[in-house]
Amino acid sequence: MNTEIKAVHFTLGEDTRAYLDRKITRIHNAENMIVDMLFTLTRDKDYAAEATVNFRWGVSVHVKEHDFSLNLAINKLMDKLEAKITKEKEKVKEVNEKEAAAEKHQGSL
Which domains does the chain have, with CATH numbers? Predict the structure, then answer.
């Protein structure tokens, strides 16, 4: 899994990069399903944290959060991202189960 982190309108410190890396470990159970994760952290009036996750099967998920604290924006982003990844994993699992049931049904005919 490739991870790219971009900072816009500010310099990303090593402590913030390490904080984001620690948060990314929350989704380690989906690493084999993800091709890459692209993070963009932007500072305007507040901080915006965005992430785009590209899955092996061609689906992309984009999530965006705002907060006046960068770490809080990252926390909100990772909460939302974790939920989206879990939802996507469930969809794939459901499709695989339906395909397996269809194959089993075809085999019994």
Answer: 2-108 (3.30.160.100)
Largest Cα separation within the chain, whole Å, is: 64
Rounded to two decimals, the pTM is: 0.84
Per-residue pLDDT reduced to its tens digit, 48-95: 999 999 999 889 999 999 999 999 999 999 999 999 998 988 888 888
The count of other CB atoms within 10 Å of the CB of residue 27 is: 19
Q: Taking the CA of residue 13 as centre, how many other CA atoms within 13 Å lie in the half-sphere pointing to its CB? A: 5
CA distances (Å), origin 5, targets 88, 100, 105? 22, 38, 46
